[in-house]
Amino acid sequence: MKKSYRRPANLKPAILIASCASLFLLGLAYFAVGAESVPTWTLFLGRFHPALLHLPIGFLVVLGVIEYLDSSMGGPRIGKACEIVLKYTAYVSTLAAVLGILLALDGGYNDDLLARHRWLGCITAVSVFWLIVLRTRARDRRRNGFSIPYHGALGATIILLLVVGHDGGTLTHGSGYLTKYLPNPIKSVIGMELEKEPGSNGFKVADVYQDIIHPIFEETCIACHGVDKSKGDLRLDSFELAMQGGELGDTIIPGDIDASEIIYRLHLDLDDDERMPPEGKRQPSDSQIAILEWWVESGAPDAGLLSELELPETIEAAINAQLEQPAFVAEAETMVAELDVPSWEEIAATVAELQEDPRINVQPIALDSPLIRVKSPFGESKFDDEALAMLAPVAANIAELEIGFSNITNEGLATLSGMHNLERLYLQKTTISDEGLEHVANLENLRYLNLYGTQVSDDGLEYLEDLDQLQSLYLWETQVTSEGAEAFRSNALDQSQVNAWKEEIQALKQKINQSGVLVETGAEAGPSS
Known about the structure:
Elements: H1 11-31, H2 40-46, H3 49-52, H4 54-72, H5 76-104, H6 111-141, H7 148-173, H8 184-190, H9 202-205, H10 208-220, H11 239-244, H12 261-266, H13 286-297, H14 313-323, H15 332-338, H16 344-355, E1 361-364, E2 372-375, H17 385-389, E3 398-402, E4 424-426, H18 437-440, E5 448-450, E6 472-474, H19 482-491, H20 495-514
Parallel strand pairs: 2-3, 3-4, 4-5, 5-6
Antiparallel strand pairs: 1-2
């Protein structure tokens, strides 16, 4: 008579506990939302999340090692150690998930990334409870050895934990934290943007905000005030967002360092709760603080060549020292050599006439360069279609056009048709809609396009699909959906080039295999008896 299999009695409590833990943790992840007023005790407890989260990581690594020993050596003591580590991992993972949800109540994080981190964190904790069930089942059916369900689930949980940890690191330190110092050869292989090497002549072509001020913010501020995390509703990852301030109001008051919150907080003691960056975070150097003070006192300009500004000797020395450190390269001379544009002498008179109009600011990209940067004064709404049309005589020389916050219309963008060397276009906070992007579609050299705060939607992105040189597109606070943005990103890939690269990789792999050395020992391996 065939003996029937009866479920072991000690498996039922494990299933019950795992089920309750699943309901609790997944329910917590589902109902967790931010709050306008958060009790201080919740934030106090939440601050222990970073301290506690390392324990489940260490426990799972130790568990993997012990399980390997158990599979190869066996023994009741090793098996008992696995059970103890699993139980402690389950308890600590649950506590870390709860504290993480409490910490998130403070707000200031990227909603999408935070939601993914919360869900995957809770799922990881749930997985550990079900690992206990699978191990109990494997132990009762087979005392030791390899169990496909259990060991497979353990491997998947460890991989999931790595993803959760990476998302947590991004929330804490900002995007690109892990890959910032990845060597350029590796970045090239995996398709990441390469770090530029410092170039000579940097001071002459350096832009005051883009090349000096923004790198300081990026180094010391953007981890907490950027796209993935915006503490106090303050973002410093672009000039426009920095000037908007945060929940406490204006952070930067052009021309007034005493009234600028950012300067005030930089001079507080490290142990002061209002000090920014806070204690434990990377601090700006004294020279960087001096540069920021000079910038604010000079009116906080959003652009301008350093070579054209009057700088105190101490500030000039500090800036020169900084230009030797960050990745900055003088691209202008190379760019000019490759283009056929009217010389500076040919456009000098026209530029002088344009400079007389208070709505227009014209600057050379580099000294004596025929390529120019044109901008409307920040916050000046008087720049309109008429002012843009005045640029037609020098259209071929314009490499950067900054007309955000202006009264430009869709019809006025027709002037862009002559700007075939345009590489950077700023249209933020204008009334531009999908119709206007039809004029942008012909800018074959465009690499940067800022449409923040416009009326552009998913339909308008179709006009941009043939811009092969486009590298950066900013669509914050537009009508573009996340699905539309993802579709555009996917379509922008040059599939023919990707396929060609794949073929090259296969060919290289084949060459590697063919270059191997065949070693004969004279012994022929046969089937084991």
